[in-house]
Each structure stands twice: as C-alpha cells, then as structure tokens.
Amino acid sequence: RIQRLMERVLYIWSVRHPASGYVQGINDLLTPFIVVFLAAELKRPLEDLDMDAVSDAALDNIEAASYWCLTKMLSDIQNHYTSGQPGIQKMVIKLKDIIRRIDHQLYVHLEEQGLDFFTFSFRWMNCLLMREFPLPCVVRLWDTYIAEPTDGFSTFHVYVCAVFLIYWAPQLKQMDFQQLMLFMQKLPTGKWRTREIETLLAEAFVLKSLFHQSPKHLA
After folding, report:
1. Alpha carbons 189 and 134: distance in angstroms, whole number
2. How far, CA to CA in Å, does 171 sit from each of 105, 118, 123, 168, 201?
3. Could you tell me which of 107, 84, 212, 119 has the C-alpha nearest to residue 160?
4. DSSP secondary structure string, the chain?
5. What is the dihedral of CA 149, 141, 39, 47, to 10 degrees?
6. Confidence band of 212 (pLDDT split at 50, 70, 90)
7. Which tens digit of pLDDT belongs to each residue from 73-103?
8. Count of alpha carbons within 13 Å of 200, Cβ hemisphere only?
9. Mean pLDDT across the chain, nearest whole number?
10. Both ends of the chain: CA-CA distance in Å?
11. pLDDT tops 90 at residue 179
12. pLDDT attached to residue 93
C-alpha cells in the first residue's frame, strides 16, 4: 500500500513539474512526510507503526498531505532536480568553501588524497541527509529546516553538512583515499539519536550566523 501511495505521489509530481520530472532521490524525500503523518494518524512513535491499522480513507488523507508537503519543499529547491542539477552544484561548491575556511587542514588533506567534494556530498545534497541518519533523526533535522524563515533546505542545509563533515575530521585526517571513500559511503551514524542532531543544528546555526551574512569571511 505504501509503495503504491509513493508511486502515485511521485508520478503526479513529475507530471506537474515537467522541467525536472522524476529524479532519483526524490522518493527518499517523500518518506519522512509519510511516516510523520502515519505516526500522527496511529498515535504511535515513528519506530512502531502498523500499516494494517490504517484505514483506506486515512491513507488517502496521508497521501494528499504528503504530496502537498513534498511539493512545497521541492518548490524551494527545484533547481536541484532540473537538467545539470545547478542547485546541488552550487551547494557543493559552497560546502567546499566553508570547509576550506574553517578547517583548512582537513580541506588540504582531502585535496591531497584526491577526494572530490562532489563524490561524497552529492548524496547529502540530493537526499538532504535522508540516507545518513536514522529516520527519527531526519525528522528532527527537517523540522528545523521547515522552521527556518527561508532557505532551510538549501542555505542552512549546507551549514549542517559542513558541521557534519567537521565532526568526523579527526578520523578523516588519518585516512588515505580508499579508506576515505569507504568511510564516507557508510558513516557510523546508526546509533545517533535526536540529541546528536540537536548538537549538529546548534553548531550549524552558529556557523551560519558567522558566515552567511559576511561572505568575505569565506574568501
């Protein structure tokens, strides 16, 4: 039932947005909305949802709500999913600039090892860290993005990614190219909880307050 729901939502969205159509990764962005609405309907925690307990009528409402939430979110970042994905390209370049400024040693190490930022951070931008954290952590993260006055899923997200990368800096600086690739493909965040996400968000907010309004700091 969930798979059919997702197929309908993604199909309708792609038909209504022909400039981008369906791009791999958009399905990941739909998942948190469905889970949150399911949890609200069932009055159960995110980790304990029973699909059999949801009526068809309730599922129709969840489908509609999820579609409109996805549509609103993607309206702010639609250039992530148009030809060439210019929005994502821009975010990766900004992430690289931030890391160069705040941890030059890490930046130089990644450059020396030949690890291109696009290689590991494309997925962070394309799926908005959906694949890097347990689902409750993603919901907590996106809750803050949505609460941001503007650009939560674009501008603020880059600062979150910067703090997230810096978190692993001590290990990363000791790794060669192959070790870096393996580590970045599957970061050890499986046991993270909302406490870690809230720390990440707090540090990202400080970083944004320092640099976003003063771009010359990143020169």
Report:
1. 8
2. 13, 20, 21, 6, 21
3. 212
4. -HHHHHHHHHHHHHHH-TTT---TTHHHHHHHHHHHHHHHHHT--TT---GGGS-HHHHHHHHHHHHHHHHHHHHHSGGGSSTT-HHHHHHHHHHHHHHHHH-HHHHHHHHHTT--HHHHHHHHHHTTTTTTS-HHHHHHHHHHHHHSSS-IIIIIHHHHHHHHHHHTHHHHTT--HHHHHHHHHS-S-TT--HHHHHHHHHHHHHHHHHHTT-GGGG-
5. 180
6. confident
7. 988 888 888 888 899 999 999 999 999 999 9
8. 29
9. 90
10. 51
11. yes
12. 95
**Residue 166 contacts by C-beta under 8 Å, 6 or more apart in sequence?**
99, 102, 103, 106
Q: Report the greatest alpha carbon distance in the chain.
A: 57
pLDDT confidence of residue 36: 94
Fill in the amino acid letter for 69. Answer: C
Cβ atoms within 10 Å of 73's Cβ, excluding its own = 20
pLDDT at residue 219, rounded to an integer: 46
Report the alpha-carbon distance of residue 201 to residue 204 in Å, rounded: 5
Two tokens, residue 119: 């290689």
Do 199 and 146 contact (CB within 8 A), yes or no?
A: no
Question: Are 74 and 82 spatial neighbours (Cβ–Cβ below 8 Å)?
Answer: no
